[in-house]
Write a structure and sequence with these properties.
Blueprint: H1 5-9, H2 13-31, E1 38-39, H3 51-61, H4 76-90, E2 100-103, H5 106-117, E3 123-128, H6 132-140, E4 144-149, H7 165-169, E5 171-176, H8 189-202, E6 205-209, H9 230-233, E7 234-239, E8 252-256, H10 258-271, H11 277-288, H12 292-315, E9 327-331, H13 334-338, H14 343-354, E10 356-357, E11 359-360, E12 371-375, H15 380-397
Parallel strand pairs: 1-10, 3-4, 3-5, 5-6, 6-7
Antiparallel strand pairs: 2-8, 7-8, 9-12, 11-12
Helix pairs in contact: 2-14, 3-11, 4-11, 5-6, 5-10, 12-15
Length: 398
C-alpha cells in the first residue's frame, strides 16, 4: 500500500514506542507478579469536572437538538459566552461573529491552522521542544519547518529577538504556547509581546496555544489577546481539557483576527461539524463559573507538585520546581548520562523495572533530549508510591 510522504514525515515514533511499551507491560503484569502500571506519561487528569458542568450536559442530553448536527450558526450562544468570558478574564472585547470559533480541542485547531493560512513550501517556526501537534500541522500542510531552540540556562525563554529580519521575512506562521508544555514554565507576557510585534512588522501569523491559561502556580499566565496587533495577525487557542478536566469531551475555542478565524472555519467545514449542543451547554457553564473551582484545582496540583518534587529530591534527583500545574520537567540524572542512557532508554528501563511510565523529552523535539516529563495526573499517594518504587531502582543504578 502506498503511504503519503507527509505521513511518513510525522515524528511520532517515540510516543508510539512508549505506548507500545506500556501496553506490553500491562499484558506482562497480568500474567506474572509485578507492579501495576502507574501511568504518568500523559496529561490526562484523574480529576472529575465540576458537578455543575456535568449537570448542565446531562440536562441537555434528552433534548432533540442535542442529537442533531451542529453547524456554525448553532454555536452562537457558546460564542457569546466566550466574549463575556474574554472581557472578564482578559479585559478584551471580542466579536462573537467574526473573532470566535468553537473547536474540537485546541490540538485540532493548531493542527488545522497551517492548512488555512499557508501554501505548500511556506515556512513556519515552532519552538524546540514543543507540543507535537505544532510540528504535525506544518507537516500536513507541506510546510518547511524552522525551530527556535529553548535552553535551560535561559529559563526556556523563546528568544524571538535573535531572529534576523531576513529570517522573519521568510516566515508565514509562528506557533508556540505559554504556559509551556513540556517545560512547565508559565512564561512572561513580554515574550508574547515580542512575537506579536514581529508578526505585525513582518506580516506573520502568530498562533498562541494557551490550554493551560488557568493552571499557573506562580503569577498570571500570559495571553496573546493582551498584545497589540492580534486583531490583524494573531490567533489564540483555549481549552476546557486541563483546568476544567474535560479532556475527553473535546471542547475548545479560538479567538483571533477575522480573516484567520474565517480561514480556519473553512477548513473545519470540510473536516467536521461541531460538538453536540449538550456539550456546549457544559462549556458555557464552565465559562460562567466562579473562580472557586480554579483556586481548588490549582491547590490540588500545587500539593502534588510540592510533595512529588520533595520525594524525588530526597532520592538525589535535582528536579526543578515548575511554575505551572500538571507537569514536572526533569533532567536526566547524571548517573544515567554517565552510563550512556538517553531519555528514551531511561524511560524504557524505568517502566520495566518499576511500572512507572514517564515521557521521554526527545518526543517533543531534540531540544528536549535528556529530559523527562512527569504528569501529575494521579492522587498524591500514588505519586509518592511511584517515587518509592523508583528509589530501589535508582540506588541500584546510581
Amino acid at each position: 500500500m502506498t503511504i503519503s510522504k507527509r505521513i511518513k514525515q510525522l515524528d511520532s515514533n517515540i510516543f508510539h514506542r512508549n505506548d507500545t511499551r506500556k501496553r506490553l507491560y500491562g499484558l506482562a503484569s497480568s500474567s506474572k507478579e509485578s507492579f501495576p502500571l502507574i501511568d504518568l506519561s500523559l496529561g490526562s487528569t484523574d480529576l472529575l469536572p465540576p458537578e455543575i458542568i456535568l449537570k448542565a450536559i446531562r440536562n441537555a442530553l434528552n433534548q432533540q437538538e442535542s442529537s442533531a448536527y451542529c453547524l456554525h450558526s448553532a454555536t452562537r450562544l457558546f460564542r457569546e459566552s466566550v466574549t463575556t468570558w474574554a472581557e472578564r478574564r482578559l479585559g478584551v472585547n471580542v466579536d462573537p461573529d467574526d473573532e470566535v470559533l468553537l473547536l474540537i480541542g485546541s490540538q485540532e485547531g493548531t493542527a488545522h491552522l497551517p492548512l488555512a493560512v499557508m501554501d505548500r513550501g511556506d515556512t513556519g517556526l515552532i519552538l524546540d521542544p514543543s507540543y507535537p501537534s505544532h510540528q504535525g500541522g506544518l507537516v500536513l500542510a507541506d510546510a518547511h519547518i524552522e525551530r527556535l531552540l529553548l535552553k535551560e540556562d535561559q529559563g526556556w525563554q523563546p528568544r524571538f529577538e535573535t531572529l534576523s529580519d531576513s529570517q522573519l521575512d521568510q516566515l508565514k506562521i509562528i506557533i508556540f504556547g505559554f504556559p509551556h508544555n513540556p517545560t512547565a514554565q508559565v512564561g512572561d507576557q513580554s515574550w508574547l509581546d515580542n512575537a506579536m510585534r514581529s508578526g505585525v512588522k513582518h506580516q506573520i501569523v502568530i498562533a498562541h496555544d494557551n490550554p493551560y491559561l488557568d493552571l499557573s502556580l506562580q503569577g498570571d499566565s500570559p495571553s496573546l489577546l493582551r498584545c497589540d496587533g492580534w486583531r490583524e495577525w494573531g490567533i489564540e487557542f483555549f481549552s476546557f481539557s486541563k483546568a476544567w478536566c474535560l479532556g475527553g469531551f473535546r471542547l475548545a475555542f479560538a479567538i483571533g483576527a477575522k480573516e484567520i478565524i474565517s480561514s480556519l472555519r473553512m477548513v473545519k467545514s470540510i473536516v467536521d461539524f461541531n460538538q453536540s449542543l449538550a456539550l456546549q451547554k457544559g462549556a458555557i457553564q464552565a465559562l460562567t463559573c466562579s473562580n472557586d473551582w480554579l483556586s481548588h484545582i490549582q491547590g490540588v496540583y500545587r500539593e502534588r507538585r510540592d510533595r512529588t518534587t520533595a520525594a524525588l529530591r530526597n532520592l538525589g534527583w535535582n528536579v526543578p520546581i515548575p511554575s505551572m500545574a500538571m507537569y514536572l520537567w526533569m533532567p536526566l540524572p547524571n548517573w544515567a548520562r554517565d552510563k550512556g542512557l538517553g531519555d528514551e532508554l531511561f524511560v524504557a528501563d524505568l517502566l520495566e523495572s518499576t511500572g512507572v511510565a514517564l515521557t521521554p523529552g526527545s518526543g517533543f523535539g531534540m531540544g528536549g533530549a535528556n529530559w523527562l516529563r512527569l504528569a501529575l495526573v494521579r492522587p498524591v499517594d500514588e505519586l509518592e508510591e511511584a517515587v518509592s518504587r523508583i528509589g530501589p531502582w535508582w540506588h541500584a543504578n546510581s
